[in-house]
Amino acid sequence: MINSLSGRLLILTTIFVMLAEVLIFVPSIARFREEYMLNRLERAQIASLALLAEEMIDPALEDELLRNAEVFNVVLRRDEARQLMLSSPLPEPISATYDLRDASAATLIRDAMLRLFRPANDVIRVIGAPVREAGLLIEVTMESAPMRTAMIDYGIRILALSAVISVITAFLLFLAMRALLLKPIKGVVGHMQRYARAPEDARRIILPSASVTELREAEEALKTLQTELTQALKQKERLAQLGAAVSKISHDLRNILTSAQLFTDRIEASEDPAVKRMAPKLVGSITRAVHLCESTLAFGKAEEPGPTLTMVRLAELVEDVIDGERLAVDSAQISFRTEIPADMLIRADPEQIYRVLANLIRNARQAIATSGSTGEVSLRGGEDEAAWHIDVSDTGPGLPPRAREHLFTPFQGGTRKGGTGLGLVIAAELVRGHGGSLDLLETGEDGTRFRILLPKGDGTL
């Protein structure tokens, strides 16, 4: 109970209400002390009326009047004349004088607290104004102990009443907070627990219904979070199913391509010059397709191998990629240009870098083809002491904002209708496997440029 939010709320409410009652208690005690002394002044004034009626009274009667008024002496000032009306012997000298005629609230509170915490029975003088304007002032002397006792009794009653009020107030406030806040919070927690049991079920997403603004905002945020999580889980499930399907297709396709390799061996033996020229490229393409299928199968088993690094002549590798792309384009619309030193060697996996370049060049020429205008795809290679760099650029229309935002996100970075958006994702992953990076350097109306950076030395840039 104490560790629950409702229990702590009940305890804190009781404490704060008690604190408020204590703050009320202090001025209440001061007011009670003032009323006590005013009452003694009024009693003393009534007692002095007997003397005004008869100039001489019996000493026994005077003593009885003083005892009933609970004072030792009564001094009444009338017509500028100060007159001792009633008197009796003082048990000790007067220790303090209090003038109630112009005392401020702060003074009354201070004097009341000092008296409450002073147990000594002092003789004090109290000065006040007579009731009904029966003189200029009235002054009495009295003991402080009876007044202090009365103050303590009054304080105990006030504290007891405050405790009862605090408990009742805290309980009512607790019921109100439970209905307005705690119950809706428990409802949100219940929604979260039900959603956690089956996050893929869109029916379990919370429907905001709270009337409290802050709680309604929390429900809206939770709804957004649950909606995005449910979509992500569904996409993850689809990707898992797609991976399984691709693995099966790649397995069968690998077998078909293996058979095709056997036929290409015979084609190579042909005496036709054109066949002799095209056969090696056909063999190379089929070999790469077989390797791709094998890599896909390995990836589906979460066992994709790292790159096999060798020194590769970049110009020859780029020429193979461009030869394959030329077959798919109209040479009158799209041209290819390379600026790569013939003796430039890079340390890389030739099959993986071929795939990286093929994806980038294919995206570039498709961007130009989509625009409907002529253009150029260019490749430039260079190196410095730290790394090799390969720039792939085009004169296409540039990447749209959405493609830039999700450039390396699977299924979201595509720019063509029907595209999957996987080309750049695969390329970036393969380059990272070499310890390098694939970055978009610029894109706009004048075209797009990507840079492949491959590190030298220990693989750090």
TrEMBL record:
The EC designation for this entry is 2.7.13.3
Q: Which reaction does it catalyse?
A: ATP + protein L-histidine = ADP + protein N-phospho-L-histidine
Q: Name one Pfam family in it.
A: HisKA
InterPro entries, alphabetized = HATPase_C_sf (IPR036890), HATPase_dom (IPR003594), His_kinase_dom (IPR005467), HisK_dim/P_dom (IPR003661), HisK_dim/P_sf (IPR036097), Sig_transdc_His_kin-like_C (IPR004358)
Species of origin reads: Sulfitobacter aestuarii
Decide whether keyword ATP-binding is in the record.
yes
Alphabetically sorted, this entry's keywords are: ATP-binding, Coiled coil, Kinase, Membrane, Nucleotide-binding, Phosphoprotein, Transferase, Transmembrane, Transmembrane helix, Two-component regulatory system
Coiled-coil annotation: which residues?
215-242
**Could you say which enzyme class this protein belongs to?**
transferase
Q: Tell me the GO molecular function terms.
A: kinase activity
Q: Which CDD domains match?
A: HATPase
Q: Write down the superkingdom of origin.
A: Bacteria
Membrane-spanning intervals of the chain: 9-30, 154-176
The leader peptide range reads: none
Any idea what this protein is called? histidine kinase
- Sequence ranges assigned to domain Histidine kinase in this UniProt record: 248-458
